[in-house]
Amino acid sequence: MRRTLILAALIVCVLTITWGQSPYFQLHDLVVEERITDRRFKHALIEDLIHALPTDRFAVDSLGSSIEGKTIYQIKVGHGPIKVLLWSQMHGNEPTATMALFDIFNYLKDSSLWLPQDQDLLSQLSLYFIPMLNPDGADRFERRNALPIDLNRDALRLQNPESRILKEANDRISPRWGFNLHDQNRYTSAGKTKNTASMSFLAPAADEEQTWGSRRQAAMQLIVAINDTLQYYLPDQIGRYSAEFEPRAFGDNIQKWGTGTILIETGGLRDDPEKQKLRTYNFIALMTAFRNMHTASYSNNILEEYEAIPLNSRRLHELIVRNATFSMGGDNFVIDLGFRNSEIELADTFYTHGTISDIGDLHNYFGYHELDAIGLTLSFGGIDTTLVTQSSQLASIDAKTFIARGHTYLRLDHEPTREDRMQTTLHLLGPRQKPPNYLDLGDSPALLLYSHDAIVGAILNGKYLML
Ligand SMILES: [Zn+2]
């Protein structure tokens, strides 16, 4: 059965190459690490997966521990002359590439799956992986480490064990290529367009003048090869990260220390909240890079193609409500209202908190969700006077019934907790809190939408709800 599946996959691979697809797309289904299913996997899980790797192919070493004592591992596979160092999740809440690394391990583990083009991969390349460089941040799903500092600003001072581990690995291995694997803000666009920058790339500058050294140019050529492959899946959704030199960052310094470095930033993609499609595209990107390295085919790519990748911009909001009428001081104004979300952690889950990100003419900005409110009036919702005393009551509340009465706020007899807020889409107030009656950036007012005198919907926590 398995053999038939593999054979079928290989045939599909061969057939699809001609259509611009990558053979790694079909292959990914067969190698996806099924124990990782969403973004909030923990260090304990990857430790389990690492310990299960077959030792005849993978050399696993401990490189030391994080501040809170979690082991940071190096996994080496291959014995070729071209050395590649890849590190992921230096920022704890940027896990997409880590998922793809475990899929790559599954592929490299099983030689019966290897594509013809990869038969000599491990004799040409030596791959050194450091997955989840910041396990303390990853376990909290936070950017920073336990101190908490941003490890990507510690490349010179090297005050943290995680930073020293990366610096020492780069010094010891002296790799030809380095991959700095991150996630970027989901509101990043590819150029000043409506397109998400679902993945962005950069060959970091090694100095303030952004000199084009030969290794940096080769990194640009390799990015062109990856971009060519990914455009099929993410048309016009690939961006180029700002090349401004950051003297404290690892990517910039590792480039300066002589490793041809590529930054990969995974952004947002519609209908992929847990980034499982983006995980596949990370797998394709890295496998494409490996293949190009050992055939050196990237060296034919022209640098103008790198420069033609649109620069990252910030044209996106989570929600844009367009053309709503808003009254103030007896005058009416037509406004667009943008909201962006942040994620609030809660045990092993999270909820999103939407706040106003812009107000005014947003015709050249774009939302993952948009509502045309032309002819509708926006106003502040009222408060229901029934005191809710128990958190357990919140889940059974029918928000639409409250909204139809003009109420978007509930008052609790205690300060609302994160658990309370997860229970309902209505906004919660503590015993003495007043509902806001003004619009301001960074705030999260609960608003009603009227058509003439009838309530037709509400905007709650950056989402719209139509009655
Ligand atoms: Zn990052």
How would you sum up this structure, described in words?
The protein has 467 residues and is an alpha/beta fold. The protein has two domains: 2-313, Aminopeptidase (3-Layer(aba) Sandwich), CATH 3.40.630; 316-466, Urease, subunit C, domain 1 (Roll). Helix content is 28%, strand content 29%. It contains 13 helices and 21 strands. It has helices at residues 2-17, 23-31, 43-51, 96-109, 121-124, 135-140, 161-173, 214-230, 250-256, 276-295, 303-307, 399-404, 418-423, and strands spanning 58-65, 71-77, 82-88, 125-130, 177-183, 189-190, 199-202, 238-240, 260-266, 312-313, 316-328, 331-346, 349-360, 366-372, 377-380, 382-388, 407-412, 427-429, 447-451, 454-460, 463-466. The strands form four sheets. It has an eight-stranded mixed β-sheet with strand order 1-2-4-3-5-9-7-8, with helices on both faces. Strands 11, 12, 13, 14, 15, 19, 20 and 21 form an eight-stranded mixed β-sheet that branches. Strands 16-17-18 form a three-stranded parallel β-sheet. α13 links the parallel β17 and β18 (427-429). The longest helix has 20 residues, at 276-295. It is elongated. The mean pLDDT is 94. Residues 91, 94, 182 line the site of zinc ion (ZN).
What would a concise description of this structure say?
With 467 residues, the chain is an alpha/beta fold.
